[in-house]
Amino acid sequence: MQPFEMPEIDVLEEIEDKIVETDLYSLVVFNDEVNTFDWVIDTLMEVCSHTPEQAEQCTIIIHYKGKCKVKNGSWEELVPLRQEICRRGISAEVL
């Protein structure tokens, strides 16, 4: 019988000076009485790269809850997405 051998495991050393903290923001889309479900779904797929299922679920949440966080990320990443969503006539904010 062979003695129990531990497999070799690579250990990552924690290096404090290489840790980068970034603020996480949310892109929130708000409900309105103007835009259709299809328009909001298409916008989320085109602008936020959602799958059809993700876009439909977010749109349903927006409709029933009044708003939905549709994407998380850095300020620099989300502001252009918000601008494009608003350009399409849909209310959105980066929070």
What descriptive keywords fit this protein?
3 helices, 41% helix, 95 residues, 3 strands, alpha+beta, three-stranded antiparallel beta sheet
Whole-number mean pLDDT: 89
Overall 3D geometry? Answer: elongated
Work out the radius of gyration. 21 Å
How many helices does DSSP assign? 3
* Count of distinct strands: 3
- Helix/strand-derived class? alpha+beta
- Low-pLDDT stretches are none
**Which percent range describes the beta-strand content?**
15-25%
* First and last CA, distance: 61 Å
Strand count, sense and closure of the main sheet? Answer: 3 strands, antiparallel
Question: Could you spell the SSE succession in H and E letters?
Answer: EHHEHE
Helix content percent band: 40-55%
Give the helices and strands, then pairings:
Elements: E1 25-30, H1 37-48, H2 52-65, E2 67-73, H3 75-87, E3 92-94
Antiparallel strand pairs: 1-2, 1-3
